[in-house]
Amino acid sequence: MPERRRRERAVTGLSAVVGHRDVIARLRASRARGRLAPAYLLHGEDGIGKRTVAEAWTRLLQCRAPAGDPAEAEACGACVSCRHHAAGTHPDVFRLVPREEAATVAIDQIRELQAALPYQPLIASPRVVLIPDATLLRPDGANALLKTLEEPPAHALFIVMAPQRERLLPTIVSRCQAVRCSPPSQEAVIGHLTARLGLPAERARALFIQAQGRIGPAIQAASAPGEAAPPYEDVGAPSTIADAVRLLDLAQGIGKDQEALRGLLAWLTLWLRDVLAWRLTRDPDRVLHPDRRADLAWWADRLSTDDVLDLASGLHAVWTSVHRNLNPQLVAEAALLHIAQRVNAHPPRRQEIA
Ligand SMILES: [Zn+2]
């Protein structure tokens, strides 16, 4: 990992992490009680900040002079351990990530870890092993690691991370204290982008949508050059949702691309959320697409609150069943046509009371 990235991570204290308040409270409490498990499993979808939490907690665990009450404790940022963290040179932290250009963690990386870990800490205890995505361990690597997890050195602590714990060997999961991580709220992510990164509110909302609500990709996109909006954002236009041929074209554009399908479903969910917010409040500050008020009003006139909730729960069901065996294009077609049918079925409902 490039040094610049390490330094970036090094400046986030636990209190500055976006979201994850309950997880952080729990981790701080287990430190305060002096009752650390030998291994933790932080599980929750990619890009929501699990690693940021793990790195910040590691700095606190290894800090020689933590500041604040136990419930608010932070690494001091000045001791020898904190300085090594900031420089990316800490000898008591191990990170199991694929080598450059490799897709998975190599077995010899695990063997190297197993050779080094038993030695006493050089400057800070516990020696921490961070595994940012344990699904990138191959079966041979996972089995080798299991041996260490079964009999870890007393001075070692593992922080394993994964998008879903079901994707790990059950024997690894059973060795870890599982901690479920949820995505930070929309307010927290947008607040971070505006207050901490200084982005205008509209750009922050656009990034939030583009990143499907995940803070990691949103921050990355914030520093990347602007990209064109994906074609499915066009679905919000009345002329598009009324045009079945256009919708089938959009679905065809998704083809076999699972990620594009997820993007479409995430966008549709946020759009329906906006339609509902507009229906209930008519307040541009409450929607993610304030620039598309006219389109939102058009939808809000045609869908009842129940319609929107039905469609959203339908999308949620599709989302949870997205599986590699389903054809993404067909799933997209079905979702788009189902929504179109509902939107186009009713004359405007302007008179109805929300
Ligand atoms: Zn310190």
Index terms:
single chain; 354 residues; alpha/beta; Rossmann fold; Zinc Finger, Delta Prime, domain 3; 2 domains; five-stranded parallel sheet; elongated; disordered N terminus; binds zinc ion
What strand order characterises the main sheet?
2-3-4-1-5
Distance between the termini: 52 Å
CATH architecture of the largest domain, please? 3-Layer(aba) Sandwich
Query: What class would the helix/strand composition place it in?
Result: alpha/beta
> Could you give the count of β-strands?
5
- Average pLDDT works out at 88
Biggest sheet character: 5 strands, parallel
Number of domains: 2
Model regions low in confidence, pLDDT < 50 over at least 5 residues: 1-10
CATH fold category name of the largest domain: Rossmann fold
Bound heterogens, unique: zinc ion
CATH class of the largest domain: Alpha Beta
How much of the sequence lies in strands comes to 5-15%
- The oligomeric state of the chains shown is single chain
H/E element order: HHEHHEHEHEHEHHHHHHHHH
Helicity range of the residues?
40-55%
Describe the structure.
The structure is a single chain. By secondary structure, the protein is of the alpha/beta class. It has 2 domains: 3-180, P-loop containing nucleotide triphosphate hydrolases (Rossmann fold, 3-Layer(aba) Sandwich); 228-345, Zinc Finger, Delta Prime, domain 3, CATH 1.20.272. The chain has 16 helices and 5 strands. The chain has helices at residues 3-10, 21-32, 50-62, 80-87, 107-116, 139-150, 170-173, 186-196, 201-210, 215-222, 238-241, 244-254, 258-281, 293-302, 305-321, 328-345, and strands at 39-43, 93-95, 127-131, 156-162, 177-180. Strands 2-3-4-1-5 form a 5-stranded parallel beta sheet, covered by helices on one side. Strand 3, helix 6 and strand 4 form a beta-alpha-beta unit. The N and C termini lie far apart (52 Å). 36% of the residues are buried. The site of zinc ion (ZN) has 9 residues, from helix 4.
